[in-house]
Structures are given as structure tokens and as C-alpha cells.
Design brief:
The chain has 328 residues and is of the alpha/beta class. It has helices at residues 17-25, 45-55, 70-80, 99-110, 168-172, 187-197, 229-242, 247-266, 273-289, 292-300, 304-314, and strands at residues 4-10, 32-38, 59-63, 85-88, 94-95, 114-117, 119-123, 126-130, 164-167, 201-204, 209-212. The strands form two sheets. The protein has a seven-stranded mixed sheet, sandwiched between helices. It has a four-stranded mixed sheet with strand order 5-11-7-8. Helix 6 packs parallel to helix 7, helix 8 (247-266) runs antiparallel to helix 9 (273-289) and helix 8 crosses helix 10 (292-300). The protein is globular. The relative contact order is 0.11.
Length: 328
């Protein structure tokens, strides 16, 4: 019986894939499978994964014929999984030896739907401990109780799918798949759905995932139009939360977070001029779609600089774009 399925998407990470695979080998056990998803890499990643399929105990290799992005690659892994529990790793990150057996033992002891864990954030030679923003450790709770308050960082803001482990019943209930085609912020609708709809969770101080930041090829470092998918992701968060039975109390958190992310992107300086213009146009339209009263309250709760920036953007005249071939 497979007790744990580890889903690991890879795309053009030939410099980092060998370290990720070595760390998987240091976590191998007869009841753990590693689903390696090659998202149509064009460098030497496929050859590295082919060797891993032969030599890594529990490895299952799945190849995409076209590049679909991280969300789609994770979904492929979920569909191929057989484990009672599931977790994720990105192909440019790595693990501490023996981490997965400890993670399995933790969720088996707690008996909840999912467990969230701390991790180590790595930039060049620097190492920083990043903790789940939830004060009660090792206590099983209703995930809804970890969404609020709106004005503080909470568990839904710690959206890393690989920082945790999930019972298969969540997959069977339709809660673990990601929105197909999202190129960034794919974890945001996912973590909100888990906290709204799962029955139980716990946060623990267990660490073992090493998250590599600042990778030049990572989409989070590339200021092209794919980064603007965060708007699609948060539109989904707002739409689904607005239908929730506790929408009145939860929407202020979702709206405030959306505003904070828009402000972050506006000041990031990573976008080319054309994409910067598109960012401003799409963000202005997104602000106008938000519930007016909730948005006003969210802006009132933010610092003056961010609130003023977003209010100016909200007043920006709408720009209507014509589809190719459509008459102006």
C-alpha cells in the first residue's frame, strides 16, 4: 500500500533537479511514491528524470507533451497518485533527510484533514525560518477559525502547497486540484478553498522543506504577462468566498489581501513597460469589480501610502480593448 504520494513538477530546472532528487532518495521508503512530472522541459531535465525513474525507489515519471504550468503539472500528479496522504515539492527545492517519515507520523498522530508546516527559505547562502502564521501548534482545529482576522497575516496567506500534508479524502472531495492553467498565485484559491471547506487541520513546527528563492528562471522572478494571472487567482478567491455561508465575515479578509497584492505588484519594478500598463489596467478593473463597501473599509484599514495608491488606481478611467479584427 502506498501511504504517501509526493508530487514533484519539473520544468527546465537542470541545475537544481539533481539536488531535489538526492533529497527524495534520502526520504525514500517502501510505502512512499514520488510522482515526477516533466512539464515539457526543453533543457536536460528530461534526461535527469529518466535516470531518476530507473534509480529512485518509488519514482513514477509522467511527461507532458506541452507546457501547462505548475498548477496543471500538480493536477497531473494528483490524478496519478495512489497514496493515502499527499504532499508536494517543487523541482528546484529540496528536503532534509527523513523529513517525509516524520511528516507522515505527525498527521497520523493528529488524525486531521491536513497539516501545515514551517519551512526554510533560502536565498543564495542565507537561510531564514518561515513559520505558519498560526499561533496554536499541534492542536486540531476547524480551518475556518484560521482565516481571520482580516488585518493580520493568517494561515490563508501562507499559501505554499508543499508546506504541509493532506489526507486523500480531500482529493476525493474535490478540494486538492488547482485551477487549470493558472501560471502564478495558483496556491491562493487552493488554500482558501481548503480553509473554507475542509473539516480539520493543525499547524506544527516541523521543518524539512528548503524553499529556493530568487531563482532567475522562476516565474516569480520574471515580469512577463503570465505574472498577471494573480488577478485571475484572486478573482476566483473573491467569487468563491462571496458564495460562502460566512461571506459577510470572510470577504473583508479576501478583499484586503487582494488589495495588498495589487499594491505589491504596482511597486515591484519587475515589469516591462507594456506589461506594467496591462497590470495597471487589469488591476483598476479588478478594484472596480470588488464590493464597494467592503473595498472602502479595506482601504481605510491600510496605511496611507498604499490606500492612496489604490484609490487613485480605482478612479482610473476604464480602457476598453477590442478583440483582434474587431472594429473600433
Amino acid at each position: 500500500m502506498v501511504n504517501l504520494s509526493v508530487i514533484v513538477p519539473f520544468y527546465n530546472v537542470q541545475s537544481f533537479a539533481p539536488e531535489a532528487i538526492r533529497s527524495l532518495r534520502a526520504n525514500a521508503r517502501e510505502d512512499i511514491e514520488f510522482i515526477l512530472v516533466d512539464d515539457c522541459s526543453t533543457d536536460d531535465t528530461p534526461e535527469i528524470l529518466a535516470e531518476a525513474e530507473r534509480e529512485l525507489s518509488g519514482a513514477v515519471l509522467v511527461r507532458h507533451e506541452s507546457n501547462g504550468g505548475l498548477a496543471t503539472a500538480r493536477n497531473t500528479g494528483l490524478d496519478a497518485s495512489r497514496g493515502r496522504y499527499l504532499t508536494f515539492l517543487d523541482g528546484d527545492d529540496w528536503l532534509a533527510p527523513g523529513y517525509y517519515p516524520r511528516l507522515l507520523a505527525t498527521i497520523e498522530k493528529l488524525g486531521c484533514d491536513f497539516v501545515r508546516t514551517d519551512h526554510v527559505s533560502c536565498t543564495a547562502r542565507a537561510r531564514t525560518i518561515a513559520r505558519v502564521p498560526h499561533g496554536r501548534r499541534g492542536v486540531v482545529m476547524d480551518p475556518r477559525d484560521a482565516i481571520l482576522p482580516a488585518e493580520r497575516t493568517t494561515s490563508v496567506d501562507y499559501a505554499y502547497a508543499w508546506a504541509g500534508i493532506y489526507h486523500r479524502r480531500l482529493l476525493d472531495d474535490g478540494l486538492l486540484h488547482f485551477t487549470h492553467g493558472l501560471r502564478t498565485a495558483e496556491d491562493r484559491p487552493w488554500i482558501w478553498r481548503l480553509h473554507r471547506e475542509a473539516k480539520s487541520f493543525a499547524a506544527v513546527g516541523l521543518m524539512g522543506v528548503y524553499y529556493r528563492r530568487g531563482v532567475a528562471s522562476s516565474l516569480t522572478q520574471i515580469g512577463d504577462v503570465r505574472q498577471l494571472d494573480f488577478i485571475r487567482a484572486f478573482d476566483q478567491v473573491i467569487e468563491e468566498t462571496a458564495r460562502d455561508r460566512d461571506a459577510e465575515s470572510l470577504l473583508p479578509k479576501a478583499v484586503r489581501t487582494y488589495c495588498a497584492i495589487i499594491s505589491h505588484h504596482l511597486t515591484s519594478g519587475r515589469f516591462q513597460p507594456r506589461v506594467e500598463r496591462e497590470l495597471r489596467a487589469r488591476s483598476a478593473a479588478a478594484l472596480r469589480r470588488l464590493p464597494s463597501g467592503v473595498l472602502s473599509d479595506a482601504l481605510d484599514s491600510m496605511d496611507v501610502e498604499r490606500a492612496s495608491r489604490l484609490r487613485r488606481l480605482r478612479r482610473r478611467p476604464a480602457v476598453f480593448r477590442h478583440a483582434p479584427g474587431q472594429a473600433a
